[in-house]
Amino acid sequence: MTQLTDAGQKVFNARYASRDEQGHICETFDQAVSRLARVAASAEKEAQPHWEDKFASIIGDLLFVPSTPIWANMGKPDRPWQPSACFVLAVEDTLYSMYETLLSTALVFKSGGGVGYNFSTIRPRGSLVQSTKGKASGVVELIKLYNASSNMVMQGGVRRGASMGILNIDHPEILNFIRAKLDGGLTNFNLSVGVTDAFMQALEQGEDWPLIFNGETHDVLPAAVLWQSIVQSAHACGDPGIIFLDTIQKANPLPHKQLNCTNPCVTGETWVLTGEGPRMVKELLDRQFHAMINGKPYKTGSTGFFKTATKPVVDLNTLEGHNLRLTSDHRILRIVDKTRYSIKSEWIPVSDLAPGDRIVLHNHRSLRKWPGALTEGEGYLLGLLVGDGVLKRDSAVLSVWRREPAVNDTGMNGSSSVMQAALDFAMELPHRRDFTGWCFLKERNEYRLKLGYLKDLAQRMGLKPGNKKITPAIEKASSDGYAGFLRGFFDADGTVAGDQDKGVSIRLSQSNLEILYAVQRMLLRFGINSTVYKNRRQAGVKLLPDGKGGLKEYHIKTQHELVISNDNILVFAECVRFGDCEKNRKLLRLIENYRRRVNRERFLATVSSVTAAGTEDVYDVQVPGANAFDANGIFAHNCGEQPLSPGESCLLGSVNLARLIAEDGRLNRALFQDTVSIAVRFLDNLIDVAAYPFPLIAEATRATRKIGLGFTGLADALIKAGLPYDSAEGRKYAGEIIELMQQAAGDTSRALAEEKGCFPEWENSKYHP
Known about the structure:
Largest sheet: 8 strands, mixed
CATH superfamily of the largest domain: Homing endonucleases
Number of strands: 37
Structural class: alpha+beta
Strand content: 25-35%
CATH topology of the largest domain: Endonuclease I-creI
Shape: elongated
Number of helices: 23
Low-confidence stretches: 256-263, 405-411, 640-644
């Protein structure tokens, strides 16, 4: 074994050597090496002496240097066998969570580990605390509390507890966080700003950057101002550092594992508004897209939506008709205080919602255009077809009943204006030379328009004979297609009702409730909120015109009704409007006659129930900057962005390049690869024999079996190689060493999997076929 230098011996004696009951050193360096090797080899089912010798050789010759907790804890009878150096603990925006995490931190420090936190879930300074009506202290004050606690608990009994605090670049308190160490405080914390690709893009393009919490924009600053503040503070005091969240996620072999324990999720049928238009979650898997948040685009993480698990789900229903299927731990934005001028909200798990709670919907009024299938004309004809047409196997037929002929009509009649609009759009589409437009059936007093292209279009959009509905293809249409479809549908089945005393409304009746829910989602994407009333008219028998001049009894299905009111009628008149001139004139006249301002839409919905809905595959997404997305129009939180799962820990060790580089700078490749291989097995074995501070950490660590193997002595190696530290040649030299280490470590991991089995979360990793 290698003889320690005087300085090395002092460090060993002060921090790592075993002591007797009187505190006297009772262990030499060689004995400590044997202690570590023996403990790691005890995890082997066979050939323990062989592996004990292997482990002792690389540690004793200082080819491999384990981290402090391994030296200080493993194999000592008076210490917990806790080998991990790094832990991540979750801290949520409640008083209970803050102090529960503080207790967990103390236990981790006691065991010899350090802790990292992402404080981005904590509300910014000055925010309302609903329970006391007071003001929140904010992120930096909470970090000061944790920092003070670190002074009280020695890390493994050998040094003060060390912590890492992260705050995402979009948090409203980010400037306070960046400057938090300029006064010399927070000596037990390293601080890092969580930077996203979206922020770096905004910086590169000279754009502004919003500071957002709970979906509410608190401020907007030039990205360059934030970046300059980071640079100045880092130059002045060494902090904050930068952690690239998207880069970490891309390199993570378990990109979804961090979400499995605590992750909220939605089902694959959920509708999300994107920059490409409305899409179902199942169409957004494993690809980046822009999520539209209150009409503004936010780029998602590189993987887009991803499957997290198969879990029990619940149905969230509202009195207004908005609904969503998701896991019970998914957080929704609930209203805690509403005045005439402002709305205060908080994120809350669906399981904590109660009937009567108000939740937030998206307001997309600033978004009027998105791409997709269907022209305005195609949408209009499909709207008429779904509303009051017939789709047959060989044709699609539109029908209009009116008393006077359409020929040479002035267009002042509602029916004739609909017919003229439909004919104009039909003439723009492919049609036969002998196409004659509307045909009059005298015996039924009915006009019909038959168009082959409309049948083909309907079938392409998923419509089938005898089953008229709003298909997913229609709901994915362009904004022009939306405007046309909704206009045609409301021309066929919509009405304008009310007055200034009772309130003006636009109404749509249907027996198919799912059609109304789809119309409600489509309208909301234009910024038009509505309410669906179930069972407005019960099923029964009613006398209706038989088309032959007489009356006949018809069985009428239960009718449901969608109602548009408040200032939503103004947006409808602008974005959709009626093609039926009588309905449109009535709507505009009622709007013009308003003597007071129309009631403002607040984009809220009222919870009616949360009920179990079985088990389904569920998915989640990361949306840096907004941390939310549009789920069926409802404001839903996205997943977290911590590099490790809450509760995960990591064992650390370093290969010592100074012992592996010859005087001419050449690396002993064979010895280097052999050292890496043995070190990987050493660290992996310690996971099995370790004792962890509490069960959550043990479970999370053994599920992913993460180890951190790096190297030390790079400066010595570069000096021997005669390469400047910051030169291109120096970086290439270091890169070649890293590549060789990754290859050797990967080969060893595969061999361990074949010998001992895969780690429990392997099926959820990106390596699983």
